[in-house]
Structure formats: C-alpha cells, structure tokens
Amino acid sequence: MLVTPDNDPYYRLRHSLAHVMAQAVLEEFPEGKIAIGPPIENGFYYDLDLPRPLTPEDLEAIEARMRRIIKSDFPFVRRVVSAEQARQVFADQPYKLELIAGLDRGADEYGDAADAADPSEAAHDRAPGQPGGVVISIYRQDSFEDLCRGPHVDSTGQIPADGFKLMSIAGAYWRGDSTRPMLQRVYGTAWNSRAELEAYLTRLEEARRRDHRKLGKELGLFFFSEDVGPGIPLFTPKGEMLRHLMESYVRDVQTRYGYQHVWTGHLVKESLYHRSGHFENYADVMFPPLVDAEKGETYRLKPMNCPSHMTLYNEMGLHSYRDYPLRFAEFATLYRYEISGTLSGLTRVRSLTQDDCHIFCTEDQIQAEFSLCLELISEVLATYQLSDYRVQLSLPASEGKFVRDDEKWSKAIAALKAALDANNVQYEAVEGEAAFYGPKADFMAKDALGREWQLSTIQIDFIQPGRLGCEYIGEDGQPHTPVLIHRAVMGSTERFLGVIIEHFAGAFPLWLAPVQAVIIPISDEKHGGYGREVKQRLEALGMRVELNNAKDRMQLKIRNAQLQKVPYMLIIGDKEQAAGAVAVRTRKGDDLGAVALDEFIARAQDEIRTRAA
C-alpha cells in the first residue's frame, strides 16, 4: 500500500526518522552517498551508497547516533530553492542531483514516497513550476539537509527515542533498474511508544513462527527444487490433499450457485492473445513462445483463462439471452514468468492454479450477478474465518497498461459502483490497480495476525467480449455483445494455501486437516488389533487417519502428532479396548478422557459437516 500523510497516522514520524537515519549514516560514513528514504507501511527505509557493506554492529552504532540526534531536539526547517540552488546544496550527492534533474524537467522526483507496486522505486507528487523554473523544497535538521516535500514532525525531540528499531539490510538497485548501481537499503520500524514497538516485534516473531515456507517443510506439505525450477511448487500427498479439499469445497459451492465447470488446457495460440489484448498488456509475464515447426504457429503456456473461455463460448454455437447468465468456472493451471527475485514461497509462484470464473450476461443482469458473486465469496471466506475484509475499487490510471476506450470504461465503472452500492458495500477507490480491460472489486481480507491479503476479486469487462466476437441474440432478435464478469474466490490455490497455512498456523480445522486423527495403541502387541479395527472403521466413514504402531513411548507418539498439528490423538489401552472406546487428546494438549468410539465418530462427523474451527 502506498502510504501518504492522509492514510497513515505514522507518516510524519517515520518520514522524519528516515532523515534522522540518513544524517546518522553520513556521520558514520562522511564519504557516503544517499539516494531515497521514504516512509512505508510499519516503518521506513533509506537507500545508501557506502564504502563498505554494513554489519549488524553498524546498525547498533547508527541507532545510537540517531538517539543522540533525537535528544538534541533539532527543528525540521523547510526552505524553497531553485533547481540551481538545489544542485549547489547537493553538489557531492550524485543520486540527489539526478532527482533534481528530473524535477527540473517537471518529473516526479522527490524520492520521499514509496511505490506500492515496486518498493524499489519512488512515486511522487508533481513538483510545481515549469522546466527551468521549478520550485524545490528542502528540509534541514541540524547540519543535515535532504531533498524532500515533507511533511515532518516539528523537531527531532518529538520522535520517541525508544519507539524505533533498525531491522535489516537489503540490496536495491537504484531506481529499480538492474543496470544501475546496487545500493544498501536499511529498513527500520517506528512507533509512538516502546510498548507499540514491542507489540509490533511480537507480531513479527509470531509471523515468523507461522511462515508458510517454514511450516510447509515441517508439516511435509510442499517443497521447491532447483531440479524442477524456481517458483514451481511440488506438493506431497498431504499437500495435495489440502489442495484437493480446498478446490473440492469451492467447486461444490460454485455448483450450488449455478456455475458450470469447464476445462481449456495449458497451451494457447499466441494470436488469440493478440486479439484479446493480453499480449500487448501481459507479454512481460508470459513464458517464451513454443513454436510448432510443422505449421509455423506460435503457442504460449496459458497465463490466464479469459480468452480460452470466450473461445469456448463461441465454439458452443449461437447463444440466446434466454441462456443467460452463463457461468463458466475452471480450476486451471496457469504459468507466469515472474522475475526470480519476486518469487516467495506459495504466495508468488510461476505455476499456479486459479479458481477462475467468467460470467456471460446482459447489462441488466450485472447487479444481480455481482450480488451472487458477493454472497458466494462471503460464504467461502467465512468458512476459512476470513470474514474481516474490506473492498478496494480498483480503477485505471491516466497512464499505464489499460485499453483505451473511454465509453466502455465509464460504463463498466458505473456498473460496478452501482452493484457495490446496491449491496451496501463500502469501498475505497484506488487508481492504477484495475485490470487492463476493466475495473475490479478486490477483497482485502485480514488474517489472524491482522495482515491484509488480496484474495477474491470481481471484475466487470465491457471490452474483451467484443474483441473476440462474443455475441448473443437479444429479445429483439438482434445480435448483442455480452458483458463479461471475471470472478475468483481463492485467487489461486497456491497463494490461498500459503495464506491459510499462516492464518491457522498450520493447525487446520478438522474438515481441512490432511490427517484428522492418529491412533496410538499403548502396546501394538496387545492393542494393535483393535487399533487397526478403529482405523478401518474411521476410513470407511471417509476420515483420514493414521495408525502409529511404532515401538516409541506413548508420550513421544503424542508429541509427534502434536508437532504435526493433527487435530485428534486416539489412545488405546486395556480399558479402551475392553469398552470399545478411545481416549481422546487434542493437538492443544486437552485430555478429553475415554469416549465411546461411536460418540467420537458422531462428534468428528458433526465437526467436519459444519466445517467448524
């Protein structure tokens, strides 16, 4: 998220600390060069060109200098200068001189706001004035001056000296360009008090504990291998069971809501993407072409489903308004050539399975279909305990990869806003985040740690159906172009799985757990036969169970099951065997005592049926 003084109450504090950190760094390294230093969500960073790599010990020394600067209570003083005066101030700072040159041309070059789409670059407000006569603002505290539009706190003394911490060092190319110098980026976090800082650090530690990449290995769910390639996850039987359960659930819900499931393969002729507009706007994330030498035709691994679904629609023959709405859904594996540096576990991959849907409808049906999509999405997110969400209305920007058709964009935006309003959905409009063919409503859900994830989406498209020749015969007997509603609930199976692993900390609800119960005979010789009977009975009812008949101690078996976050451990000894019962323990450590097997089965089946937490 792009932080601004309007949407972030910590903006002034964090912006001011970025300047204080830059001053402290230059005091430690007088020959250093400074680039940009924006506030960001939860903190700030500064990009630096220094004579040597920084160490953790350097960060401690910089923090100490920052506290001395804060204690001195230097005022932040703004002054306005010409471009030529700015060049004199920053004569020995080449990165600032480059920014000043951009300002002189009328570009957005202050360097004190971070771009949400790519935090390695800066995005800025327009500087006033004309090239050659631009007005530039500079802020000064003590002896340090920085090119900056502000705002800041009044003085360094207003910064809580115990409310910040320098967190990490990373590499960042200047202006996000791999052909430019690699700088050192120092990240910090800043809060209004020590208590807020400690609460944030606790959340970070909990996030590390829940990291889906860590839990994925520990629970044996998925792996990545250089032999297969980066960004291509390999799922174990347990991981595939999770995928299957998640997709089967959404498939069942979609069927209940009137969706028909289709399948459109993995390869598509490149020419189709030229017609739809995807090649022009999406080619940078497509894998390289595959050429059919015999026919001289070029194919692409499918990066999206829309053109294939519209082609299927056309091939199925003439459609009438009476057929509408027509809802196609597909769990399709897509391939996107993501830059290797952006890959991150399951949340950013090159091979992904999208729960995609395309609804062909009339303009009059948009509102009803949106309502149905909203109901479906709300039901699914509630099942995963992700009901705390907000909606972002993603609109086009004046520049960027958007099809130019003002009339159709206006109709699509008006239709989407009307559908949101009709459903009493509050939303925040954000420019520049639309799909290239239309506006969208993105669902930003909060997980158990309060972190936001963009999951579901509903998009209104007046553009692509016409480009691909989709038609229906209207009530007037004449051909018309349908509206296409794009909709995804999970977004992608992989990313959604990464989110819910962290949301549940790997302790999945019973209906979703890859292994729902582990049967632990105290002695395999004495109780193993009954244990196998229990296993067979539970499996016959569709439960996923394991029998641990190893010679390990019972407490170790229980501990191992808890580490694997298995919901139930069923202990079998003499009393349980004689009574046709099981001693039930939960992964949380609760001992529920001996329970008749039939009673446990009824309890478990009710928990699975209701998809209870």
Question: Mind explaining what this structure looks like?
Answer:
- It is a single chain.
- The chain has 613 residues and is an alpha+beta fold.
- The chain has 3 domains: 11-208, Threonyl-tRNA Synthetase, Chain A, domain 2 (2-Layer Sandwich), CATH 3.30.980.10; 218-503, BirA Bifunctional Protein, domain 2 (2-Layer Sandwich); 517-609, Rossmann fold (3-Layer(aba) Sandwich), CATH 3.40.50.
- It is built from 18 helices and 28 strands.
- The strands form 7 sheets. The chain has an 8-stranded mixed β-sheet with strand order 11-15-16-23-20-19-17-18. Strands 1, 2, 3, 7 and 8 form a 5-stranded antiparallel β-sheet that branches. Strands 25-24-26-27-28 form a 5-stranded mixed β-sheet, sandwiched between helices.
- α15 (524-540) links the parallel β24 (517-521) and β25.
- α11 packs across α12 (406-422).
CATH class value of the largest domain: Alpha Beta
Shape: globular
N/C terminus separation:
31 Å
The helix tally amounts to: 18
As a whole number of angstroms, the C-alpha radius of gyration is: 29 Å
> Largest sheet, order of strands side by side?
11-15-16-23-20-19-17-18
The proportion of strand residues reads 15-25%
* Low-confidence residue ranges: 114-132
Total separate domains: 3
CATH topology term of the largest domain: BirA Bifunctional Protein, domain 2
* Helix-strand category: alpha+beta
Helix content: 25-40%
What would the average pLDDT be, to the nearest integer? 92
Task: Supply the CATH architecture of the largest domain.
Answer: 2-Layer Sandwich
Beta-strand segment tally: 28
Biggest β-sheet, characterized? 8 strands, mixed
